[in-house]
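User: Can you recover a sequence for this backbone? Please restate the input before giving your answer.

Assistant: Of course. Working from this structure:
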């Protein structure tokens, strides 16, 4: 069961729709890198170009930290899309900031973690988007190896896929997001930008993305 949307999740959903960071196209689906067809495509890098949206996101992350009483000594960004949002949040919270590379550098000091993430620190990882959860949880192992305790992962948006729930459950780290796919659909429906058939199709994708894709010739 999806939690009742909050004022914050609805505001972020409206922001993402307004600037085109999330696009909905049930009749002309997008092709993901996996070859799977999807009626939704998210590019949260567009948020970088809108100061008001950036502020909403930073303030929203700070609210999640406070409301959920998450202990935090350092903010960690995922490379690359999580880095700017981690930086803005760290500045707002007056905390150290670091980021995790996808792999260790092959030259210099060979770092995979850049910035300040001291051993024993309680960290929050900032991500822009959660789809399957694999890339978000991939940063946890190098942080654990460095003695950093990840208390939570926070993301701007999640598709809410079952695969992501399983990935975070396996990792043993909670996920907090500013908004999600069900909330986005509700907000899009209120704007009259979707037909009834569009909404039915989007809901069908949400229930079973693999079947929705295969029914339309995708993987």
């Amino acid at each position: 069961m999806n939690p009742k949307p909050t004022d914050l999740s609805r505001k972020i959903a409206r922001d993402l729709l307004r600037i085109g960071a999330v696009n909905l196209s049930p009749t002309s689906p997008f092709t993901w890198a996996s070859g799977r067809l999807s009626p939704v495509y998210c590019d949260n890098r567009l948020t970088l170009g809108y100061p008001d949206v950036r502020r909403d996101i930073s303030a929203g992350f700070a609210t999640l930290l406070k409301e959920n009483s998450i202990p935090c000594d350092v903010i960690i960004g995922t490379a690359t899309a999580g880095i700017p949002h981690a930086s803005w949040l760290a500045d707002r919270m007056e905390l150290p900031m670091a980021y995790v590379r996808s792999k260790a550098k092959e030259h210099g000091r060979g770092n995979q973690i850049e910035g300040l993430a001291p051993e024993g620190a309680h960290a929050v990882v900032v991500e822009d988007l959660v789809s399957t959860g694999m890339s978000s949880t991939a940063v946890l192992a190098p942080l654990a190896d460095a003695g950093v305790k990840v208390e939570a992962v926070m993301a701007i948006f999640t598709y809410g896929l079952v695969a992501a729930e399983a990935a975070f459950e396996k990792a043993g780290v909670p996920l907090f997001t500013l908004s999600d796919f069900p909330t986005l659909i509700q907000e899009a429906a209120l704007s009259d930008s979707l037909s009834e058939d569009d909404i039915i199709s989007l809901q069908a994708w949400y229930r079973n993305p693999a079947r929705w894709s295969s029914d339309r010739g995708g993987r």
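That completes the design. The two ends are 27 Å apart (CA to CA).
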